[in-house]
Amino acid sequence: MSPFSLGTKILGTGALLLLLFLSVGLLLPGTWDAEATRLLPADRQAVMPFVDSPEGWRQWTPWPEGAVVRSGPEHGAGATLSWDDPDLGAGSFTLVRVDPGEVEYFVEVGDGSMQTHGTITLTPQDGGVLVFWHEHGDLGRNPLMGWWALSMGRAQGKELAKGLERLEGLVTGAGTTSAQPGDSPDQPTADSVPGR
After folding, report:
1. Nearest to 66 by CA among 53, 78, 82
2. Is the Cβ–Cβ distance between 95 and 104 less than 8 Å?
3. How many Cβ atoms are within 10 Å of 151's Cβ, its own excluded?
4. What is the pLDDT of residue 149?
5. Which residue has the higher pLDDT, 27 or 86?
6. How would DSSP label each residue in 146-188?
7. N or C end of the chain: smaller count of CB under 10 Å?
8. pLDDT of 133-182, one tens digit each?
9. C-alpha dist (Å) from residue 174 to 41, 113, 169, 184
10. Whole-angstrom Cα distance, residue 147 to residue 110?
């Protein structure tokens, strides 16, 4: 006869499974990659104002509802938006490099443990400009974030594709409203804020 009651066995098994789940999550890499591509029927000069400044980005990507503060130059490297949202936490978006054909940015969220690096490349092609958007990030060393990173690339890839669709609407004049928090159907989530 076992010295442990049925309740003790159930609790012990549950604790063991939780420990196994967290241990595997800690071993999983917290990194992810996402990308999206879209051919816009416009030239590169028409697209650049939407990607070479934080205010341009705010017109076609969702942002947290909390206070958003701009610092640095209005356009180009060093232009920054910072926020402090009760749901998404504090963070910042900074343009690192702005060239005629490519924009590089960096996003940091919370205490800096979650970081995203991204680039948007504009390549002239027949019929317009090919926009290639790539992001890669690190969710930090956290057993839960390791599991989240497994699906983050796929989820963020969908968000990037939605963003490029909104960008096309602005560039072609088919969409003139900004992507704002709470807009349906693309309400901001941890995945929809640039770099999250």
Report:
1. 82
2. yes
3. 11
4. 58
5. 86
6. HHHHHHHHHHHHHHHHHHHHHHHHHHHTS--S---TT-SS---
7. N
8. 999 887 766 655 654 555 677 888 899 999 999 999 999 886 544 444 33
9. 12, 38, 4, 17
10. 19
State residue 59 phi and psi, 5-degree precision: -80, -20
DSSP 30: -
Nearest to 51 by CA among 84, 91, 82, 93: 93
Average pLDDT of every residue of the chain: 78
List the structure tokens of 193.
């804020």
**CA distances to 13, 16, 76 from 7, in Å:** 10, 14, 62
Report the distance separating Cα 132 and Cα 143, nearest Å: 32
Domains in the chain (CATH in brackets) are 6-172 (3.30.530.20)
